[in-house]
Amino acid sequence: MRVLVFSARKDERAFLRQAMVKLGHEIAFEEAHLSGRTAALAEGYDAISVFVNDCVDAEVIASLDSLGVKAIALRCAGYNNVDLDAAANAGIPVVRVPAYSPYAVAEHAVALLMALNRHIHKAYNRVREGNFSLDGLVGRDIHGKTVGVIGTGTIGRVFCQILRGFGARVIAYDLYPCEEALKMGVEYVDLARLYAESDIISLHCPLTPQTHHLIDAEALASMKQGVIIINTSRGGLVDTQAVIGGLKSLQVGGLALDVYEEEADLFFEDLSGEVIADDELMRLTTFPNVIITGHQAFLTQEALINIAETTAQNLSDLESNASCSNQL
């Protein structure tokens, strides 16, 4: 297949090129996001590959169909940015990478939690300025605390396992409780109880109409004062205005985000020389108890290799009319 990669980042190109060439695919890279304006770039290609901030709505799919594109390959697990009904109607199969490295994302969530809880970001800056004062750097033991995990898929279970290793009590909410999680000592509860009992809440569920703004003003009000919230899943799970209100009222004691609801035009870009017009994101960066990373939780060598190899194999399966377990 001739494959055009949209939203191509420098860190992934070598891995993608190696995996695609190995399986006989031709590959080209395009830094632009896929949208109604850029879909025409796919002319002459058999397949396209997209990432989390590409727009694959009905309008884009119609354009791809008219250009003869035969497959859409996601380089990620989530697919909330794809109109699957429109793709099915156009006869364009959509494949994804459901599990590239659950350890990468889970470990990053733990890193964010530890940095936030032990004020590593503030201590790092102080020491660089010759300030070795400990004022304002008091953290809390994770051992013995109650950690609420929303979503116990592969990533959520790895996160649970790590936190159990810290000696934390781990409670979880999932529509489909997992026997593996139960065996490691995770207790399943309803959302109301998870909100009420958790000192720390980490989000590991997909973004759906039902989970959109799962963390809103009502949810925050039912949580413990000073709760720490970690989100490495999808930005739309968190109502940004509500969580800003929670930070101001001290209901939220700490917030760590690797994803952001309006990240599409921001993340994966170097905007250091520009004025960022997103007032809510800029407001979040003013809080001393907020840490934000730019959707990098997945970014390990192991994950990049798995993403590239799985994406290439998905396309090979489609090309040979073989059954593809990763087809949506």
How would you characterize this protein structure?
This protein is an alpha/beta fold. The protein has 2 domains: about 1-100 and about 300-320, 3-Layer(aba) Sandwich (Rossmann fold); about 100-290, 3-Layer(aba) Sandwich (Rossmann fold), CATH 3.40.50.720. Helices cover about 35% and strands about 15% of the residues. The chain has 12 helices and 12 strands. The chain has helices at about 10-20, 60-65, 85-90, 100-115, 120-130, 155-165, 180-185, 190-195, 215-220, 240-250, 280-285, 300-320; strands spanning about 1-5, 25-30, 45-50, 70-75, 95, 145-150, 170-175, 185-190, 200-205, 225-230, 250-255, 290. The strands form 2 sheets. The chain has a 7-stranded parallel β-sheet, with helices on both faces. A 5-stranded parallel β-sheet has the order 2-1-3-4-5. β9, α9 and β10 (about 225-230) form a beta-alpha-beta unit. The longest helix is centred in the C-terminal third of the chain and has 19 residues, at about 300-320. It is globular, with a radius of gyration of 21 Å. The model has no long low-confidence stretch (mean pLDDT about 95).
Tally of DSSP β-strands: 12
CATH topology of the largest domain: Rossmann fold
Overall spatial form: globular
Structural class: alpha/beta
How would the blueprint of this fold be written?
Layout: E1 2-5, H1 10-22, E2 26-29, E3 47-50, H2 58-66, E4 71-74, H3 84-90, E5 94-95, H4 102-117, H5 120-128, E6 146-150, H6 154-165, E7 169-173, H7 179-183, E8 187-188, H8 191-197, E9 200-203, H9 217-221, E10 227-231, H10 240-249, E11 252-257, H11 279-284, E12 290-292, H12 301-319
Parallel strand pairs: 1-2, 1-3, 3-4, 4-5, 6-7, 6-9, 7-8, 9-10, 10-11, 11-12
